[in-house]
Specification:
- Helices cover 31% and strands 29% of the residues.
- The mean pLDDT is 91.
- The protein has a single domain, classed as P-loop containing nucleotide triphosphate hydrolases (Rossmann fold, 3-Layer(aba) Sandwich).
- The strands form two sheets. It has a six-stranded mixed sheet with strand order 6-7-8-3-9-10.
- It has six helices and ten strands.
Length: 229
């Protein structure tokens, strides 16, 4: 099996100064290339911490987490930033679009970070917006778009630089059922190829059926991994 992610005994502890909180307590998880993996469980169980470690935003305190064959904790900060910029796409619950930029400008940001010239980046951004059904809205500001349209812009931004790993934090929880279903269909159709992997943190049981596998978490542990019904 070609792995995108391998977590072995991963531990993450937050030290507030007054107390230590173990957010991840010996996580073992393999995620295959081409797989849509969902992380589910109650609030505070460690889901967002785990995808933050997988995405290289946080360093674990113990254990090993290999992402696309690399152990990010061994990298210098600049190399880790470069790795994320090239290989990781992010989709957030709150969309995190810049309000003063139009849709194409928002989508082009990862390309510009990777050194692509602005005009070329915006041209590619418009192409990707076409793929998510928003080609005619490329000049619209976020405030001129519905919630579902803003989420599609955020998905286009996550995909525009062709990352091999896409991580999503509650991508549908702020959307109605039909819009959430459409967003997940879009993610599954566009993002998932044999050389890409999608990891989604969600409380939204309505979208569980889109997963290849679901990892249930509680109190910093993975308690069960199962196929979606």
């Amino acid at each position: 099996m070609n792995l995108a992610v391998r977590c072995q005994n991963v531990v993450k502890v937050y030290d507030t100064g007054e107390q230590k909180v173990t957010a991840l307590n010996g996580i073992n998880l393999d995620i295959a290339m081409g797989e849509l993996m969902m992380l589910v469980g109650p609030s505070g169980c460690g889901k967002t911490t785990l995808i933050s470690v997988i995405a290289g935003i946080l360093d674990q305190d113990d254990g090993r987490c290999e992402v696309l064959g690399e152990n990010l904790i061994d990298m210098r900060s600049k190399d880790k930033l470069d790795f994320r910029a090239r290989n990781v796409g992010f989709v957030f619950q709150a969309f995190n679009l810049l309000p003063s930029l139009n849709a194409a400008e928002n989508v082009s940001i990862p390309l510009i970070i990777n050194g692509v010239k602005r005009a070329e980046a915006e041209h590619k951004a418009i192409d990707v917006l076409e793929h998510v059904g928003l080609g005619e809205r490329w000049q619209s500001l976020p405030s001129q778009l519905s919630g579902g349209q803003q989420q599609r812009v955020a998905i286009a931004r996550a995909l525009v630089h062709s990352p091999r790993l896409i991580v999503c934090d509650e991508p549908t929880s702020a959307l109605d059922h039909e819009t959430g279903h459409n967003v997940m269909t879009l993610l599954k159709d566009i993002a998932l190829h044999k050389d890409r992997t999608l990891v989604i943190v969600t409380h939204d049981a309505r979208i569980f059926g889109f997963a290849d596998r679901i990892a249930e978490m509680d109190d910093g542990h993975i308690i069960k991994v199962k196929g979606a019904k």
